[in-house]
Amino acid sequence: MQHLNLYSELDRVVEPPFSGRQQLWIVCAVFVVMMLAYGVLLIGSQLMESELAELAARQQTMTEQLDTLKAKKSKLERENNLDGEIASLQNDIQFRRQLLASIDPPNSEQVEAGFASHLEGLARQNIDGMWLTEIQLQQGGQQLALMGRTRAPEFVPRYLQNLATETIFSGRQFRVFKMNIPEGENNLLDFELRATESSDAQRQN
After folding, report:
1. Quick check: is 85 in a domain?
2. Residues 135, 145: contact at Cβ < 8 Å?
3. How many C-beta atoms lie closer than 10 Å to residue 18's C-beta?
4. pLDDT digit string (tens) for 10-19?
5. In a domain, 156, yes or no
6. pLDDT > 70 fraction of the chain, expressed in percent and rounded
7. Residue 14: what are its φ and ψ, rounded to 5°?
8. pLDDT tens digit string along 78-101?
9. Phi and psi of 181, rounded to 5°?
10. How many domains does the chain have?
């Protein structure tokens, strides 16, 4: 028969599976883990804010550079347009000098009897962006050929309308009109005009 000594078991301390001490350690461990996680997240957030500020600074720099490039582009476009206008004016000046030289040759009396009026009429008409490169007058001015260049095709008919206001060219009938793009040029057109004097103007002369 087995006897149980109940008195010896009275002084024994029996702890539950999760005692208060163990729960305290678990809470402390969880707190430490949370603090570490918070620290990692805080550092990561600061790094992201720093990268974001750096990206914003880069974007501002790129925006300023883009504005600078746009300003340079506009300046270059204005300079190119100005160069074109200067070249056009120089061509006009050269053409007028050639006309003046033709109007006042050594034998001025011969010119006055021939082509002086025609050249003076051509010299009075001028359209920016269009100039003559060659003038042919034959048979005392009855046959006329004009060769030149223009920046726009509509300048040619406008020039002819202006030329018709000159008495010497009144009644001219341009029977030949040619226009083509010169090789290596994208913004210029070569043109050729040929006309004969009308029968009414011939009878008046």
Report:
1. yes
2. yes
3. 9
4. 555 555 555 6
5. yes
6. 75
7. -110, 120
8. 766 777 777 777 777 777 666 666
9. -95, 120
10. 2
Strand runs labelled E in 60-172: 130-138, 143-150
Residue 57 has which token pair? Answer: 């600074």
Does some domain include residue 11?
no
- Say how far residue 12 (Cα) sits from the centre of its chain: 97
Q: What is the value of pTM for the model shown?
A: 0.43
Task: Answer yes or no: do 36 and 79 share one domain.
Answer: yes
Which tokens in the block code for residue 112?
Answer: 């006055």
State the chain's mean pLDDT as an integer: 76
Q: What is the CATH number of the domain that holds 137?
A: 3.30.1360
Residue 103 · residue 122 · CB < 8 Å: no
Residue 167 DSSP code:
G
Q: Which amino acid makes up residue 28?
A: C
Name the residue with tokens 């793009």. Answer: 181
Q: Which of 85, 103, 121 is the last residue of a domain?
A: 103
Structure tokens at 181: 């793009």
Element (H, E) at 66: helix 20-103
Maximum Cα–Cα distance for the chain, whole Å?
167
Residue range of the domain that includes 49: 17-103
How far is 45 from 39, CA to CA, in rounded Å?
A: 10
Query: Would you say residue 204 has pLDDT above 70?
Result: no
